[in-house]
Amino acid sequence: MRITILILAFLLLIAVESNQASVSMNPETVEVAARARREALMKEQEKEQDRVERQKQLPAITSIFARHTTRERASRLAYLCYETTIDTPFRPIDLAELALAETGGHSLSNNAVSSEGAMGVWQLMPARAKSHGFKPSDMQKDEKCAAAAVKELKAKLEMASGNLQKAKRLYCGTGPQAREYEQKTKRFRKAIMAKMGQTLPANLINS
Hints:
Layout: H1 2-24, H2 27-65, H3 71-84, H4 92-103, H5 126-131, H6 142-159, H7 164-171, H8 175-195, H9 202-205
C-alpha cells in the first residue's frame, strides 16, 4: 500500500513539474514576461534621464541665487530645490523661480516676513503652512519651508487642473499683485534658462 502511494505521489510530482515546464515555455507567457522587463527597463531609463536633466539645472540656479545671497547659501537652496522636488510633478527650476519672486529682493532670507504675515524663503502664510502639517515657525527653516512650498504648489496645481503656469499664479495669490509676481517668475526662469544655454518657450513670453 505504501509503495503504491509513493508511486502515485512520484507520478503526480512529475505531472506537476511537466505542467510547470510547459507553462514556462508557453509563448504568450514568455512574451508577457519580456514585455514587463522592457517596460521596467524603459521606466528606469526615463527615471535616470530625468535625474540627469534635473541635476543640470543646479549650477544655473545656484548662479542666479548667488546674485541675491551668499554663494554658500545659494548652493544650499539650489540643492533644496532639487531634493524637495524629487518624485513630484515639478523640477528644481519651478521651486527656484518662486523663491526668487517671493524673497529674491530680501536676500532669499529665511527670516523674511511679508506685511500679510507670509514667512520664509517661499513665503507661506501661517494658515497654509498648518494645512500642510507644519507650524508657522517651521517656515523659517529652509527644508521645511521648501517642503511646504511643494505641497502648496501641488494643491494649486490641482486647482488649476494640471496647468503649471496657472498654479504658480495661484501660488502668488490673486489680483494685480499675483500678476506682477507671475511676471517676476518668468523673468527669473528666463535668467536661469539663459545660464543653461536655453530660451524661454514662446508660449510663456507673451502670456
